[in-house]
Amino acid sequence: MIAIIDYGVGNLASVRNAFIKLGYEAVISSSSEQILQADRVVLPGVGAFADAMDNLRNYGLDGTVKEVVRQGTPFLGVCLGLHLLFTHGEEHGIHQGLDIIKGRVVKFQLPREYKVPHMGWNQVYPRENSRLFKGLPAGSYFYFVHSYYVFPDDDGVIAAHSDYGIDFVCAVEQNNIFATQFHPEKSGRVGLQVLQNFASL
To answer: Is 185 marked active-site?
Structure first.
């Protein structure tokens, strides 16, 4: 069973529907007990970093996420769910994240011809040994909607990068932790392959 964490942020139904389309049992849950018993856990999210962290704490789920990671359950962060894994975010001030992956979340500073937020289809270039992108060719297009991107302290966690005026990290892998800046549930066939790769870990 795949648990999709409900903390009052994000389009959870589309993530659940994508896993169901692949043939997996997926539930949307804010129950720590149910989440900790799941075979796989997903943290989606859209919106502001600080508000999302407040919601996680208010729902009592910040500790649950850390326990999921500690116990070795495969974990997938999507979009804002990627950002929250980092030490801090720099949206409207400095805000503490979950600090599961060391690094920060910073805003695009781009030439005027690049619109922010970055919205639309963009090519992704994974590292050769990425488990999340197994079977997918470099340069596949995925769907993005974001104004901020992650800047990990350790390049070893980088699973893929993309280019939007600058080269930026768009996916990470660290032990049982996987996370993407793009929305695999909105990225057609290649997005479903990423979710299939995660679900079959």
So the answer is: yes
